[in-house]
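DATA SHEET
Item: assembly model
Revision: 1
Owner: S.N.
Input lines:
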Amino acid sequence: MSDPILIIIEISKIAMVFGVLLLGAYLVIIAERRLAGFIQDRLGPNRVGPQGLLQTAADGLKLFMKEEIFPAKADKVVFLMAPAILLIPAFMMFGVIPFGDKIVIFGREIALQVANLDFGIIYIFAIASLGVYGIVLGAWASNNKYAFFGGLRASAQMISYELTLGISVVGIILVAGSLKLPDIVMQQTEMIFGIIPRWNVFVHPLAFILFMIAAFAETNRLPFDLAECEQELVAGYHSEYTAMKFALFLFAEYIALITSSALIVTLFFGGWHLPYIENLPISDFVLQLLQILSFVLKTSFFVVTYIWVRWTLPRFKYNQLMNLGWKVLLPLAIFNVLITGILTAVF
Amino acid sequence: MTNTEAENKKNSLDLDTERVNLNFGPQHPATHGTLHIEMELEGETVVKAIPHIGYLHTGFEKLGEHLSYNQWITLSDRLNYLSPLCNNIGFARACEKLFDIEVTKKCEYVRILLYELTRIADHLVCVGTAVMDLGAMTVFLYFFEAREILYELFALATGARLTTSYTRIGGMMRELPDEFYDGVKKFMADLPKVMNEVETLLNRNKIFIERTRDVGVIDGETAINYGLTGPCLRASGVSWDLRKNSPYSCYEDFDFDVPVGERGDVYDRYWVRMEEMRQSMRIVEQCMEKMPDGKVNLDDPKIILPDKDQVYNSIEGLIHHFEITMENRGIKPPVGEIYDATECPNGELGFYIVSTGERNAYRLRVRPPSLINYQAFPYMLEGGMLSDSVAILGSLNVIAGELDR
């Protein structure tokens, strides 16, 4: 790390990921509102700026100028910290996700990933579990019964679905033989029979479905948004939050949404891998740019899927959520690991 | 598990558990108005639910003792504000029974047409909001768009979307405009599409079925004991519809079925409402076909206000106008008391009027379906989850305007 240029590169990568995520969250908020409008046969916000692109900025400004309200018996320190505790892990998770192959600029080979940790996947699960503390602490500190119920639901939900989330990936780790995310992506760049890309979604379809469902639950999106659940719990864990603290909760939700979409792409859809064009006569640099673009597009596809599902399905009930998590998803995940293990040992 | 066993288990775990009192409402997004339910929760399970009323007190019944019969029609709009025309028509019918008047056939048909359209509008909102409470926002907006067309039509006919006040004793405020019939035809063509779209979203949706099947169950006998009427009663398997069981107006002329559920749960109440919309569409179509000629209003200047043209240009017209509108005169019914009920979208909407022969009632009592349906709410909820409360509340369609008259 003595090389100053290396440090500059690393810092600029961090800044870039940070900026792209913030911009992404901004765009996803608008996309969500416009898409919801499209699905529901109405317009959605289209007045502020071209196609309503500045709507989020206007809302952000509004939230920025709102009065900060602390509930009378709230624990002020925890109340203030909770949004940050939720937001920071959402950013941190993206640190290990490779968004492109190694790229060569000015003769330097740069890996398009903030940190290539040896235990990439474990790191992601560790950080993802931290997020729930933000919700639970915020709910607890609000001293509000609705928020309290939201917090309780969130913690139970996270614990139940994290198991499925973790175990469904074990199969992939078994086959890839590595916890590093770039290795998992590299492994997916092969071809089956020379035509189908060897993406994990084709190799581990069950794991993909389980992971996807658990990821919905982890991001607290409908049909799993029991912690928020406006019809029963008013606004759930953030009932008492106003102004920028509320905006941070919102931002954290959307950044978690992007991160989990990116994770689904990385683990199951070949990450930045763009099949069929490797042999075309284009320069390496263009190819790498196309790969980054394909990563962005794949991620956007899943973000749109998240939005689409949210505006289509009703919400689960608490006991159904628990039943689904413990009685259906978890046994299936374990079964999946078992089958994958046997097949790996045989072949 | 018996109580003592549960107690023993609790003691053996040595857990210090406490029940939580949750005030659900009066300001709460799912209560659609100002309802207040005091719940006692054990974890997520509702052990006890006490509904409170009194947040939208209007004094309609007391006002009925001071306003003349035609004046009170404007208040009936606000009873169940999702079906104002049904209330107008129901009250006008009760008054006509008191006055012993027969309205024209055209008037009966126009009333039935409006009544069934209002039933569709009411069910659209009820199903939409009930499903929205389960988290499916999109259905709500699909149905609201359909209802919007209906409300435009009502505005065309009556001059107002909600405060219609369209009936008068002995007739209607005015004839229906021709464009109204065209609009209804167009709406009748569009509504099945919207309903099919919504049924595609819901009827085979696993989450929706799990949220509604066997939730808030009430069997037929209990439902009768609680005095439930309307879709909530029919969902419990009791085929009781005033339009069929004690036909009033011209309902015998029409061919329609009464959908009846089996289990009396939230899903059946949803299903009954959807089917009732289809049946109402049948009645509306027949009504449009058979619409008789003639006038909607009686040709009786002692009851119906004369045209403005006559009021300004003839002495008789002026006298009739003053006889009806002046404070110390007005149309006066015979002495007596009557009860008359119609099958409004939520159930039996009854009016009990005691008359001493004055221009206003001695006592005017409303039998609102919502209040009586709401009484069964704790029975349906207790033992269920917190999430069931919104599902059941949505399926009962409790309208706060009817709770405290």
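QC remark: The longest helix of chain B spans residues 105-132.
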